[in-house]
Write a structure and sequence with these properties.
Elements: H1 9-26, H2 31-42, E1 51-52, E2 58-60, H3 68-79, E3 89-91, E4 94-96, H4 102-109, E5 120-124, H5 130-136, E6 142-146, H6 150-163, E7 168-171, E8 185-191, H7 200-209, E9 211-223, E10 231-232, E11 247-248, H8 250-259, E12 263-272, E13 293-294, E14 297-301, E15 309-316
Parallel strand pairs: 2-3, 5-6, 5-8, 6-7, 8-9
Antiparallel strand pairs: 1-2, 3-4, 9-15, 10-11, 12-15, 13-14
Length: 318
């Protein structure tokens, strides 16, 4: 049975044509798609016997399940998806040390999570699926990733093709498609997304539309320090990232959630970013967090703005 069978039939009818169009686009023999589809296909014959999803490292298979020659092919396929942003993973003994030590974020969220067992869950901007795999340890009926970028989409599909988890799935869609999923989700994770949206309040309203009454929204976002209800609007870039629009304080983001219609909004964690959490590795060899800061003043970005915080909030859909 398809994972999407967990969604109401009427909802699937609304999105089937859109998803089919996007899947057809990804199936085209274009260089940008083949670059990621070929490594996925090269590992389709491998199925993991051992999975560890409740530890910091998502483990898919063990080193004893494949030959030394097969492990070299696994590593080559994994490296085809560089740069790896989220992780860490261990795939048949190949250790993938991603840029983000994503378990730190998950461990901050874990004490505040609602019960995911048997729930329909969405992860918006699911990247390579690290958080989907961590959610799978809580036995949701369906954890559905929204990921429009082919690199991340194919990477997850490669990993889950090996893992074989039929309650995980990704769609090549973004946050802007959520209104098509009216009243679909019990829990929505919106992590690392809002500061990339030109209208964050409208994005939050789209999320609310997709949630069932009483459902829980978990938001994690880049932020600036302070308690005032304000947001930074960078002139061109923030920490060298051009696609950054509004960078709020935690208080400002809480107000956005309330204005978007969420109840019981709670800011439950706030911390400064660090090069211990986001850094350059052998699997992500480009600039990373410390390169985005003023070398003479690590409390400022290279543009002179306050260095990033991360904030975590949750709210309840009405």
């Amino acid at each position: 049975m398809s994972a999407l069978a967990q969604l109401p039939a009427a909802l699937r009818e609304r999105v089937d044509a859109l998803v089919a169009r996007e899947e057809n686009r990804l199936a085209q023999p274009k260089k940008g798609f083949l670059r990621y589809r070929r490594p996925l296909e090269s590992l389709q014959h491998l199925k993991a016997r051992q999975l560890v999803l409740d530890q910091d490292v998502v483990q898919i298979g063990s080193d004893t399940e494949v030959s030394a020659e097969e492990r070299l092919r696994v590593e080559a396929a994994l490296r085809a998806f560089m740069p790896w942003r989220k992780g860490p993973f261990s795939v048949f003994g190949v250790e993938v040390d991603a840029e983000w030590r994503s378990f730190r974020k998950w461990n901050r969220l874990a004490p505040h999570l609602p019960d995911l067992e048997g729930k329909i869950v969405a992860d918006i901007g699911s990247n390579n699926g690290y958080y989907l795999f961590r959610m799978a340890a809580h036995a949701p009926a369906l954890a559905l990733g929204f990921e429009p970028y082919p690199q991340h989409l194919f990477c997850f599909r490669m990993l889950n093709g090996i893992a074989g988890l039929d309650n995980l799935h990704t769609l090549p869609l973004g946050v802007e498609h959520l209104p098509l999923f009216a009243s679909a989700f019990d829990v929505v994770f919106l992590m690392g997304i809002l500061y990339h949206r030109i209208s964050p309040v409208e994005a939050l309203k789209d999320v609310r539309t997709a949630m069932r009454p009483g459902g829980t929204l978990i938001v994690e976002s880049q932020a600036i320090p302070g308690d005032g209800p304000v947001a930074l609007f960078p002139r061109a870039t923030y920490a060298k990232v051009p696609g950054t629009w509004f960078v709020p304080t935690g208080t400002c983001l809480a107000h956005w959630m309330e204005r978007a219609g969420f109840n019981e909004v709670e800011l439950f964690c706030s911390h400064p970013m660090s090069g211990e959490e986001q850094r350059r590795t052998d699997w992500m060899t480009f600039e990373s967090y410390t390169d985005f800061l003023d070398p003479a003043d690590p409390g400022r970005t290279v543009e002179g703005y306050p260095a990033p915080y991360r904030v975590y909030l949750k709210g309840i859909a009405p």
